[in-house]
Design goal:
By secondary structure, the protein is mainly alpha-helical. It has one domain. Helices cover 57% and strands 8% of the residues. Helix 3 (60-84) crosses helix 4 and helix 4 crosses helix 5 (112-120). The radius of gyration is 19 Å and the shape is globular.
Length: 210
Amino acid sequence: MRRPDAWARSISLIDYFDPVMVNRQRLIWTVATRRQLERWEPYVAAAVLEGRPGARALTPAEIWAAATEHHFALVAAHHLLTALELKPPSSVVPDPTIRAELIEGRHLHEHWIENLEVFNTRPRRKQPGHPSGRAFAARNPRTSPFLWLRWSSTRGAQLLPNVSAPAVHDLLDAVEAAVLASAPTLCAYVPPREPSPWLYENGEWWPKPD
């Protein structure tokens, strides 16, 4: 039998996370995730341009900035997934692989002290110790979640092997549209978007020239 204090807490949560708060949480983490992508993607684009005439190399400080912005993009995206699970259910349902890998990626980055060596040593000498790491490794046996300048011409910047930035943007756009359809006054809390560093042509993503 559930203890009375646990029952009281559950009732309190139901009262607190009413439709207004649910919309707020979904939109604030949509905005936060988009902001992190807007901070991170220009570093990826600059890295792709390296070596081309007129392009400059990323500085060491920028490489570290890319790593931290990538990390916090995963944190924000994980909070968004949590918000989407609040009741009432969202009409937006993330792709199952993207959802699973975002959760795994966030867990692995949070517990970096346990996972950096496991995933960044080649060949892999150890196996992940927790379910999130084992699931990620099973899906991605030859790569690491700790690559923050990953890019593919056909998929664009990649937060994780199976999570592209364009796919996350599509998810964010869908969540934002659903929230604002329900609560249009929240549009005042959505900041203007930063220009994209990418050109999308003929099914390929390439960085815009400097």
